[in-house]
Amino acid sequence: MKKTIIKMFVAVAAITSYFSISNNLQAQTTNPDGSRTRLGVGLSLGVPTKSNVADVVIAPDLRLQHDLGARTSLTLTTGYYGFLGKPEILGERIGSDLIPLKAGAKFFFGDTFYLQPEAGVAFSTKEGYGTPFVWAPSVGYANQKWDIALRYEGFEYENGSNGMVALRAAYSFNLSK
Question: What is the pTM of this model?
Answer without folding.
Answer: 0.76
